[in-house]
Amino acid sequence: MKTIETDEARKKDTREKIALGGLVAKAGLRYEKRALLLGLLIDAKLRIKGDDTERLRLTEIGEKAFGREPD
């Protein structure tokens, strides 16, 4: 039997995945291969690990793409 918690968790997960897909589209990567997208994300994860300067640089790029100044 499904519970309300299970349904809510599933809905939340779906909303998060849709939002992440929107980020891929906003970045202009909608038609790239999934393997490339995953590679980009893994590379970025490795680049920002322990590198606050790179994290800040990428955050500023993202903030600009959203049309607002960095926090």
Automatic annotation (TrEMBL):
Which InterPro entries does the UniProt record give? Conjugal_tfr_TraD_a-type (IPR009444)
Tell me the protein's name.
Answer: Conjugal transfer protein TraD
- In its UniProt entry, the species of origin is given as Aquamicrobium segne
Per the record, the gene is traD
